[in-house]
Amino acid sequence: MSIMRRPEWLQKKISPSAHSAMNLLLEDLQLHTVCREAHCPNISECYGNNQATFLILGTICTRLCSFCNVTKRDPVPPDPDEPRRVAEAIQRLHLHHVVITSPTRDDLPDGGAGLYAETVQEIRAASPDTTVELLIPDFQGNRVNLATVVAAHPEILGHNVETVPRLYYVREGADYRRSLRVLQLIVEMDAAVRSKSGLMLGMGETEDEVVQVCADLLAAGCRYLSIGQYLAPSKNHFPVQEYLPPETFDRYREQALAMGFRHVESGPYVRSSYLADKYGE
After folding, report:
1. Are the beta carbons of 197 and 162 closer than 8 angstroms?
2. Distances (CA, A) of 52 to 23, 166, 167, 217, 251
3. Residue 1 pLDDT > 50, yes or no?
4. Which residues contact 40 (CB under 8 A, 6 or more apart)?
5. Lowest mean pLDDT among 7-16, 28-37, 108-117
6. Dihedral, CA atoms, 168, 164, 174, 72, nearest 10 degrees?
């Protein structure tokens, strides 16, 4: 199956020369980023600006989403020293805002919640002025595990719904209503935490479906949203159905803000962690 040819507004170049300093740091501290594992098109821009979204709990996901490039096979045990090394990287990069995420780890009793909390604790100790954003899996809806993460008090706590309910067959193991419940519980557990979610467009959704997802997110207490273009990592992944022009993303942004979101980043190259520091302004 071939991938649709990208239009002119989706021709961002990857510049490996911009990666060298970040790659050295990651190798030195034996860390991973979702930027590299997910083949993010913004990697050169972010690495060149000494920014990265750290991937904890390994690089192997226990779910089989057909749109994602993160490796799927038997995962390895968590590294208990990883939180300390992430905190050291943040300190060395002088980051004022950082995003931490992970693959889904359904194999772990707590889904990795404890390591998320430990990572926030280490960051607070090493870089107390750095604001922390976590992008978490659904923990299979386990309230106790979610509470462990919320109790770490990140400034922003995100969980992506990714697409509209009709297309959830691309998210094997996920459930749209469960994801909404996770976002609702975040707000119920700590109203001070900013609840955030993200959508990928171009997978075959309709405008009415996108607007309904926005309404569902607002009803769940989510007030921060990212909307970006889905880009298939390879011909073996779910194929792109449509490339939306930049003006369509602009329209969605204005609609979402008018509906009640406090901050929305919407554009072809927007990803969950892209311009993440803007959500706290």
Report:
1. no
2. 11, 32, 29, 27, 28
3. no
4. 34, 46, 271
5. 7-16
6. 70
How far is the CA of 262 from the CAs of 96, 209, 218, 247, 259, in angstroms?
21, 21, 10, 20, 9
Tell me if residue 225 falls in helix, strand or coil.
strand
Tell if the pTM clears 0.85, that is, is over it: yes
Query: What residues does each domain of the chain span?
Result: 16-280
CA 55 to the chain's CA centroid? 10
Task: Kindly report the backbone phi and psi dihedral angles of residue 114, in degrees, each rounded to the nearest multiple of 5, phi listed first.
Answer: -60, -40
Picking from 161, 188, 187, the residue whose alpha carbon sits closest to that of residue 176 is 161
**pLDDT exceeds cutoff 80 at 148:** yes
Between CA 123 and CA 132 the distance in angstroms is 8
Closest CA to 185 of 151, 226, 155: 151
Instruction: Residue 172: count other Cβ atoms within 10 Å of its Cβ.
Output: 11
| Crossing angle for the helix pair 207-219 and 176-189, to the nearest 10 degrees | 30
Q: What is the pLDDT of residues 251-278, one digit of tens each?
A: 999 999 999 999 999 999 999 998 888 8
Q: Which residue matches tokens 């750290």?
A: 54
CATH architecture assigned to 16-280: Alpha-Beta Barrel (3.20)
Rg, C-alpha atoms of the chain: 18
**Residue 157 phi, psi (nearest 5):** -130, 115
Question: 49 near 36, Cβ under 8 Å?
Answer: no
Determine what percent of the chain is predicted with pLDDT higher than 70: 95
Query: Are the C-beta atoms of residues 279 and 156 closer than 8 Å to each other?
Result: yes
- Classified as helix, coil or strand, 221 is coil
